[in-house]
Design goal:
Elements lengths: L1 H12 L4 E5 L2 H12 L5 E5 L5 H15 L4 E4 L14 H29 L3 E6 L13 H21 L4 E8 L2 E2 L13 H16 L7 E2 H12 L10 E4 L7
Parallel strand pairs: 1-2, 3-4, 4-5, 5-8, 6-7
Helix pairs in contact: 1-7, 3-4, 4-5
Length: 247
């Protein structure tokens, strides 16, 4: 869906064989079907990135199907909103498990294959502007996870550079996708919903370019980072936020 589908499309369009992995098997299968219909080489695999066995199986599936792993995009993520005083340990752990542990696990097993192949590789982590500047309430677990993704990106870039593997991150701002407004209207309180809408309006007012981003705005940056056009870039984070952070 959303950013993941847009990145899959851009990479497939550029000639990559793309394995789409998602915890939602139906969504993954449908995305693969749509891209195959355009003539691209695409397959799918069901995977819960927080589970090590799933990740190992997903990477093995990719190696068997495509003959190796040259590019990994860590895009899986969840962003439930919950105030700190209402958040339990399980809530926090659930976000970290997907957003940070999942990024680590996928990078570890795909990175091991890249090292074994001896032809370098590219890992792209989808972080967030929240990694450097929290912008909304109820996002402490998400912000912590994305801050961790940014730190992990830099650490992995240092460790894997000797093998010719580049590791970079993309930090999207507000991107128009199916789930971006999913929390609105679900609070059960008209007052809280009005507060959320007010917050959204304030957020939008800081967009220097005057619009929300589209999934393809992120996908085109991912294509750049996956290509030889960025062959001397590693350990960096490209911000794709329409100017929000500079406003």
């Amino acid at each position: 869906m959303g950013i993941g589908l847009a990145i899959s499309y851009r990479l497939a369009e550029a000639g990559a064989s793309v394995l789409i992995a998602d915890i939602a098997a139906g969504e993954a299968e449908e995305a693969a079907r749509r891209l195959k219909a355009l003539g691209y080489r695409v397959d799918w695999s069901e995977c819960d990135v927080s589970k090590e066995a799933d990740v190992k199986r997903m990477v093995s599936t990719c190696v068997e199907w495509a003959g190796g792993v040259d590019i990994l995009v860590n895009n899986a993520g969840i962003y439930p909103r919950k105030p700190l005083n209402a958040m339990g340990g399980e809530d926090f752990d659930g976000v970290i498990a997907v957003n940070l542990r999942g990024t680590f696990l996928c990078s570890r097993y795909a990175g091991m294959e890249m090292v074994k192949q001896r032809r370098g590789g590219c890992i792209i982590n989808i972080a967030s502007i929240e990694a450097v500047h929290p912008s909304a309430g109820g996002m402490s677990a998400y912000d912590a996870s994305k801050g961790g993704v940014w730190a992990l990106t830099k650490s992995m870039a240092r460790e894997l550079g000797q093998y010719g593997i580049r590791v970079n991150a993309i930090a999207p701002g507000a991107i128009r996708t199916r789930g971006v407004f999913s929390h609105l209207g679900k609070s059960g309180s008209a007052e809280e919903e009005r507060a959320q809408l007010k917050e959204l309006k304030a957020f939008m007012s800081r967009m220097v370019l005057g619009r929300m981003g589209e999934a393809d705005d992120v996908a085109r940056v991912a294509l750049f980072l996956a290509s030889d056009l960025s062959s001397y870039i590693t350990g960096e984070m490209v911000v794709v936020d329409g100017g929000y952070l500079v406003s």
